Amino acid sequence: MKKRLFLLLLLFSSAAFAKPAVIVSILPQKTFVQKIAKDMVDLTLMVEPGNSPHSYEPKSSQMIAISKADVYFSIGVEFESVWLPKFKSQNEKLHFVDIGQNIAKLETKEETHNHASEHEHNHEGADPHIWTSPKNVEIMAETIYKTLAELDPKNKTAYKTNLDLFLKEIKYTDEKIKEILKDLSPKSKFMVFHPSWGYFAKEYNLTQIAVEAGGKEPKPKEMIHIINEAKEERVRVIFTQPEFSDKSAKIIAKEVGIEVKKVSPLNPEWSQNLIELAKSIAQK
Question: Is the pLDDT of residue 10 over 50?
Answer without folding.
Answer: no
